[in-house]
Hints:
Layout: E1 2-10, E2 16-28, H1 61-71, E3 81-85, E4 97-103, E5 109-117, E6 123-128, E7 136-139, E8 153-157, E9 164-172, E10 179-187, H2 192-201, H3 205-222
Antiparallel strand pairs: 1-2, 1-10, 2-3, 3-4, 4-5, 5-6, 7-8, 8-9, 9-10
Amino acid sequence: MYDTEIGHLRRSPVEHGFRYRSASWFIDVDTPPTVPVWLRPLVSFRASDHLSPVADGADTLRGRVEETLRAHGAQVPGGTITALLNARCLGYVFDPLTVFWCHDAAGAVRAIVAEVHNTYGGRHAYVLGPSAQSGASVAKAFYVSPFNAVDGVYRLRMPEPDGELSIDVVLERPGRAPFTAEWRGARRVPTPARILLAQLRAPLVPLVAAARIRWHGIRLWASGLPLVPRPGSTDQKAHS
């Protein structure tokens, strides 16, 4: 588990930034953490919260990640798959960004899947090479914010976390200052006491995160920032 801080900064056409505390989980998708029964309302994990379902075979989180790799023409390395994500809390989860690191049998990262969720229930996966740990670019292909069109290029830096978590996302578009987001955190042993402390530090993380995004959207709209129409529902299906 990581005690995290997430920051967003928009520089144009208006400047607006915010930071908030959160809590993130770094798991092996084959063996997600099991917490005591009395803590499960605060911490649980479901494969159905991520990526597209697997048509044939067991619909597990590993199966969903590997199916996503195949759908993008990427090789399935076959080793451990780790994930950085939010846990369900009171039956709800909202993950603006989930990252999966796909290893080969020797333990080397061979592919990275970055899954983005929006507040409309849509999800989209970007499949990246191992170079994304130090830096990679990918064209934006998914509607996330009512204030950003589906254009531009993401510059991503997504090293697999260890003692520290440090992930950067920068959206660049011609003629505009970049939009930046950063995800920072310190690793913690997820004991029951630490899980409760994380709830005090950042209570009801997924619920509060979704509410906070909507609140800042209202503030931007009230400041006069024009809305960008959302594409048709076919672009918002849960797909890779």
